[in-house]
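The following block was generated as part of the benchmark described in Methods. Ligand: guanosine-5'-diphosphate.
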Amino acid sequence: PKQAYARTKPHLNIGTMGHVDHGKTTLTAAITKVLSERGTGGPTTYVPFDRIDRAPEEARRGITINAAHVEYETDTRHYAHVDMPGHADYIKNMVTGAAQLDGAILVVSALDGIMPQTAEHVLLARQVGVDHVVVALNKADGADDELSDLVELEVRELLTAHGYGGDAVPVVRVSGLRALEGDPRWTASVEALLDAVDTYVPVPVRYVEAPFLMPVESVLTITGRGTVVTGAVERGTVRVGDRVAVLGAETETVVTGVETFGKPMESAQAGDNVALLLRGVPRGTVRRGHVVAAPDSVAPRSRFTARVYLLSAREGGRSTAVATGYRPQFYLRTADVVGHVDLGDAGVARPGDTVTMTVDLGRALPLEPGLGFAIREGGRTVGAGTVTEVL
Ligand code: GDP
Ligand code: MG
């Protein structure tokens, strides 16, 4: 029998973000390696680089996995850590709030400094309410102190510009690659990074008393067992035997199993990354973007007002203005839905502007004030916003 998950330490969701090739996946692997060898940190299993960056293989097998979750424990916490293979996956999973990060490790190569995706991830993380960022100044093995100092200064300024209080943010010089190779100096640097995460990212307040809600991140059909949905519990608690509604599939069912990282658990609560086994849901009816929730606890809606920041061209946004009638894709939680934009009296908005808009979605979703979202068009992020009122 599988060993059950024992909730002995606070659980937090964190993830790596940052520009492609700055070393996010290498660092993720290094963290699990260092902790697996620490001995005192609990049962962390080393996850090698190619098991994290396995998206292509999974894609061939027809399973859409565009985020790798690894699990590890420090002396004081249990972490689920998400690493994305590419920028678009980052947008889908982290920026929409699907990954529900309590904190993020911003990976910046000391050899390259801030790059466009570094800035975009910081901007959008702020927008969706990731309140705590720790910086891994990676590839420090190849950079001299002068260069590292310069990049550190640049990163602190970037963070300050986005409201993160860059002077207070821990910036730790690390080498994921050298730590993976077992070099003691750089193993210690990863330990220092983990200490910074342990102390700087607070245990968040969890809404465990609220009605259960979990956005569906992926769906698997297991022959003979039924349909499994995975995701991060946004609020409330769910246990085996609970009745749930699947919004999007417009059906109700019963949860017949709850697991986290392959370990069964009696009940899952806000903040947990879980797989739920659902009874008798026909194959193909539940999809990413649907929401599993306590029956009658939420009414899906399609019209809302929002405050939206339109990225400037320099930040990777549009180079031309948008007008009422604009129909981009809206990424809300795990859903990806077309929306009609009404800019009111102004009628137009330019890249770099922060504006109020009314949005009509092509499909009703559970909406609420404060919900963050990203606006995408032609494969790139052009805006980020927050729901201010549901109409
Ligand atoms: P990601 O795209 O951010 O996930 O970056 P990867 O982890 O795939 O790393 C990109 C490249 O940088 C690979 O060739 C790594 O071996 C290299 N790399 C990663 N971390 C380090 C480091 O700490 N030092 C050096 N010198 N190279 C690194
Ligand atoms: Mg990677």
